[in-house]
Amino acid sequence: MSNLWTDLETGPDAPDVVYAVIECLKGERNKYEYDKDVPGVVLDRVLHSNVHYPSDYGFLPQTYYDDEDPFDIMVLVEDQTFPGCIIEARPVALMRMDDDGEKDDKVIAVPDEDPRYDHVEDLDDLTDQTTAEIAEFFETYKNLETGKQTETLGWESADAATDAIEHAMELYEEQID
Predict the structure, then answer these.
(1) For this protein, what is the EC number (predicted)?
(2) Is 104 assigned a ligand-binding role in the annotation?
């Protein structure tokens, strides 16, 4: 059985078009994580706060980020997919974040093959409501977990997102490969 983190390339044209391996689904409270030892998507926990994921969420294969995990990605979708789904996605923004004292940035992307997002190329193409909902989710989703604190630190452009992806690809080669 193949390992989606180590066997799948980062994308067909990384860092401009990447593969997002979906773990958590839009509209749900279940926190799934890809377990490379299984390998497969397993239920990590149910979110303690009464919030739900604002869009599908997962990781980029063959990446390793500053928080010592595969690099996180949120793909804006109209309808949820399923855990383990692989979406060709186009990075459009980077949300800077601190998760309990660790740098835990998130790539925000759109499906490359969804015509509803053809016009979305950069941070400025996202509505203020979209970025506010994403930030609100990540600022509050751990509130009821003992001792956990998160803070969003601002938004950056698609160029910052692709630079961060390149950084995560380099870290993967140095630390994992």
Answers:
(1) 3.6.1.1
(2) yes
Q: Which of 117, 110, 119 is nearest to 18 (CA)?
A: 110
Residue 98: strand, helix, or coil = strand
Using one digit for the tens of pLDDT, what is the confidence trace for 81-102?
A: 999 999 999 999 999 999 988 8
Query: Does 26 show up as a binding residue in the annotation?
Result: no
pLDDT of residue 100: 85
Q: How far apart are CA 62 and CA 171, in angstroms?
A: 9
CB 56, CB 26: distance < 8 Å:
yes
Has 141 been labeled as part of a binding site? yes
- Using a 10 angstrom Cβ sphere, with 0-12 exposed, 13-18 middle and 19 or more buried, the burial of residue 27 is exposed
Residue ranges per structural domain of the chain = 18-176
CATH of domain 18-176: 3.90.80.10
The answer to whether 67 is annotated as binding is yes
DSSP state of 155: E
pLDDT band for position 175 (50/70/90)? very high
Q: What is the pLDDT of residues 19-36, one digit of tens each?
A: 999 999 999 999 999 998
- 79 annotated to bind ligand: no
